[in-house]
Amino acid sequence: MAPSKNFLQRLTGGDRRSIGQSDDVAALVRKRPSLFRELVRGMRSEDPLIRMRSADAAEKVSRAQPELLGPHKGELLRLLDSADEQELRWHLAQMVPRLELTKRERLLAASTLRKYLRDSSFGSDRSVRPTSSIVSTFALQALAELAEKEQSLRLDVIRLLRESLKTGTAAMKARSRKILKQMEKRRGRELAEKPIPRDSHRASAATNTSE
User: Fold this and answer.
1) Which of 56, 148, 161, 192 is positioned for an S-S bond with 176, CB 3.0–4.6 A?
2) Pick from 35, 132, 37, 34: which is nearest to 83 by CA?
3) pTM of the predicted protein model
4) Contact residues for 112 (Cβ-Cβ < 8 A; gap 6+)
5) CB 137 within 8 A of CB 172
6) Which band of pLDDT confidence, cut at 50, 70 and 90, is reported for residue 124?
């Protein structure tokens, strides 16, 4: 059966406070991965409910099947850059780090995520809160995940996390604290696994002898 408009129509109805049938749609896509492209298409729908619920379902499916994101990398990066609705932003922030990105793509994605942190407004819909702790929290998480693979981002991400500990919401502070602990733990493991240069052994031996 070919995908049709009816597939995305399952995501209509209700209001922005409800995810509608997105869980059911996600379950269907897990069984029929070829339908994933319809969720990506839905993120460009004229219906804001279809946009947000398509993103919700796509994020849920891609947790266990991140490979489904790959064929749509270009479109997802364009959506990350152009999205102004908070629901789209926080789901895209979760999905983009799951992509196989080039250095340039990681840096561009990081730039957009920093913009999410700076923004004080998400779209012109007055029913949406002017700021979103959820978007900021997931933007911080996404930046940390990008920094794992892009060393040039690490210092700036650490700075943002520390700044969030001082000025962020309760959710942002909790997430920043957790991420920083994880980064410190990984850094300690990296140092422990790093080979000790031979010169260091000689220097240590010389020090012991002189004592």
Assistant:
1) 161
2) 132
3) 0.81
4) 80, 81
5) yes
6) very low
